[in-house]
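Re-running the complex after MR caught last week's input typo. The corrected sequence lines follow. Everything else is unchanged.
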Amino acid sequence: MSQAVIQFKDVVKAFGRQTILDRVNLTINSGKTTVIAGPSGQGKSVTMKLILGLLRPDSGQILVDGQDISRMRSKALNEVRTKFGVLFQGSALLDSLSVFANVALPLEERTRLGKDEIRARVLATLGQLGLTGHEDKYPAQLSGGMRKRVGLARALMLHPEIMLFDEPTTGLDPEKSLEIYNLFLETQKKFGYTSIIVSHDIPKIFNLADQVILVNKGKFNTFASPEDIQQSELPEIQAFVQSTMGKVYLSREME
Amino acid sequence: MIRYLEKIGSTTIWLLGDLGRMGSFLGLGLGGIFKRPFRFSAMIRQVRLIGANSFWVIFFIAGFTGMVLGLQGYYTLRKFGSEGALGSAVSLSLIRELGPVLTALMVTGRAGSAMCAEIGIMRNTEQLDALECMAIDPFRYLITPKFLATIISVPILTLFFNVVGIFGGYLAGCGLLGVNPGAYWSGMEQSVVNQDINMGIIKSFVFALVIVWVCAGRGYFVHVIRGAGFGAEGVSKVTTQAVVLSSIAILIWDYLLTAILL
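Corrected-run output:
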C-alpha cells in the first residue's frame, strides 16, 4: 500500500475575484506517476506552485509527507523543498551559466561536496542523459529537447523524492516528446521518485500514469486509469477528452 | 461614479501592496548580507560590472562637467573680479552636489537598467522560481551581491568623479583661460572642509541604496507590476519605469539630504 506524499485538503486559491481552485482535494501517492491535465488557464500551474510553496492557499491545507506547508515559515519550507525536483515548462536554466554550472548549482549551493566530487557527479549525470560534450555550452545554444534534458539533470542532482514536470513536452515534436517521456520512465526507475506531470493534453502520457487528475473550472476529478476518463459521463470531461483525444474516444464508442 | 471610486480604491490597495513588497525587498536584500555562505566572488563580479566598467563613462562625464564648470564659473566670477575663487567654486559644487548626483544618475542609467532587465528576465523565464525550488535563496544568491556591490561602487565612483572633475575645471580655468593655478588650488584647499566631503559621501551611499533598491526591486516584481504587460514588453516597460523612478528618487533625496546636512 503506497503512502500519500502530497495531500490537498479543501484548498481554495483566488486571484482578485477569480477563484482558481475551489475547495480542491487531492491525494498523490508515493512512487506513483500522477498526471494533472486540463485545458490551459484552469489552475494547473497554480496547483504546481502551491505544491512547491511558491504560492500559498487562501484557505485549506497542503500536506507534504504529512507536514502542512500552507502556513510554514520560509526556513522550514526550504527544508521541505529539498524533497522536490522541478522541470519547468521553459526549463528555467540560468541563462548566464553554462550547462555544467547549471547542473552543478544545486550541489554547490546545497551540499558541502568538494570541487572534484561535484565535477564527477555532474559529468556522470550529464552522461546518463546523453549530454556528454555539451557541458560548456550555454542554454541559448541548445535545442528545446536538450534544454529539457539539462533541466532534468539539474533537478535530479539532489536525488529528489518527488519530481514535478510542468508541460514537459510543450514545444517539442512528437518524436522528441516520446524521447523525453522515455527518459522520465528510465530515470524514475533508477531514482524511484514520485512523479507529477502537469500537462494540457493527455494522450501521449496515458500509458505512463497511475492516476490522472483532470482539472476543470477549479474542480478536480481523479481517475484511476485512462479508461475511466473515457467512460466518464461528466459533460466537461467528455468535451475535454473529445477535443484532445478525438478519434480514440469516438472509435471506442462506435465499437 | 462608483466605478471611479472603485478605481481609486483598487489603485490605493495596489500601491500599499507595492510599498509593502518594496519594503520587504529592501529588508531581505540587506538581510542577505548576514546569511551564510556569503557569495564573495559573486559580489566582486558585480563590483566589476557596476563599478569598474563605469570607469570611462564617469571619467568623460566628470572631465567635461568640470571643464564646463570652469568655463561658466570663470565668466561669472570675472564679472565680480574674483576669478581667483574659481577653485573653490568648482570643487564645492562638485563635491557637494554634482559629483554624487551625476554619478548616481549615470550608474542608474548604465548599471541600474541592466540590473532591472536581468532580474526581470529571470523572473519571466521562471529562473527565480527555479532557484527557490532548489531551496536556493534568490536574495542571498542574486540580489544581495548587487546590493553590496552598488553600495561599495557608487561612493568610490563619486570620489573618482570629484577628482577628475576638479582637474577638468583646472584644465579649462587655468589651462585655457589663464586663471592662476596657485589661486585655483589654494582656493580649493581653503574652502573645502571635511563636512563637505562627508556630505558628498553620505549622499552617495544613500543614492546607491536607492538605485539598487528601485532597479533590482522593479525587476524582481515585474510579474505583479500593474499595467506593465507581460514578457519582453513587461521587462522593457519596467526597466524604463525603474530608471525614471530611481532618477526622481535620487533628486528628491538630494534635496532632503542637502536640507538636513547643510
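None of the earlier attempt is carried over here. Chain B has nine helices and no strands. Residues 38-261 of chain B form one domain.
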